Prior knowledge:
The complex is a heterodimer.
Chain A: E1 4-7, E2 10-13, E3 18-25, E4 31-37, E5 44-50, E6 53-57, E7 64-70, E8 73-79, E9 87-94, E10 106-107, E11 111-115
Parallel strand pairs in A: 2-11
Antiparallel strand pairs in A: 1-3, 3-8, 4-5, 4-9, 5-6, 7-8, 9-10, 9-11
Chain B: E1 4-7, E2 10-14, E3 19-25, E4 32-37, E5 43-49, E6 55-58, E7 61-65, E8 71-76, E9 85-92, E10 101-103, E11 107-112
Parallel strand pairs in B: 2-11
Antiparallel strand pairs in B: 1-3, 3-8, 4-5, 4-9, 6-7, 7-8, 9-10, 9-11
Amino acid sequence: ETGVTQTPRHLVMGMTNKKSLKCEQHLGHNAMYWYKQSAKKPLELMFVYSLEERVENNSVPSRFSPECPNSSHLFLHLHTLQPEDSALYLCASSQDRSASGANVLTFGAGSRLTVL
Amino acid sequence: GQQVMQIPQYQHVQEGEDFTTYCNSSTTLSNIQWYKQRPGGHPVFLIQLVKSGEVKKQKRLTFQFGEAKKNSSLHITATQTTDVGTYFCAGPVSGGSNYKLTFGKGTLLTVNP
Lengths: 116, 113
């Protein structure tokens, strides 16, 4: 157990479906992240929430919509995705250490998404 | 934009051999982090280096941060099959917020028992 729980672990969806990924952290952290991991590409930061406020949005297409109702929960709503969106979506959390400029990430196990 | 390059991309060793992966940034980093991802798993934080020239050890793993804070290395002595996985370095985006880390593509280590 990493302290960051993601559901579902695997998801297959058609391009017209609407689905959501869920993340919950039990570490008392105040920042949560969505990363995308595709084969042969570096980890890509998608969104960051700090104290439930979105602080980073990395030019992600609007078919991905994040939601952070509180500091322990993070969602990624998916709508009309494309096959190239198939990837491992990783949630992470951190305790903001702005003073030292070093936020260490604790990742969840990921949600493996396949878009048909 | 800022780039973090890692070499090699792949490394296959015999158990007991040493292994080193190198990380180079196009800009100076305030700190560098290393993560390990086992096959089918998720990245797990290993260590963070902050000071110029810093060297840290974790059992058989030795991490170094370059004097110019633009490069770093991870060296594993006498590899074991449990060392198999992808090792990523990551550094804060220059001029960006504390939340933005740029990850390298990683080095995949396989170990032949």
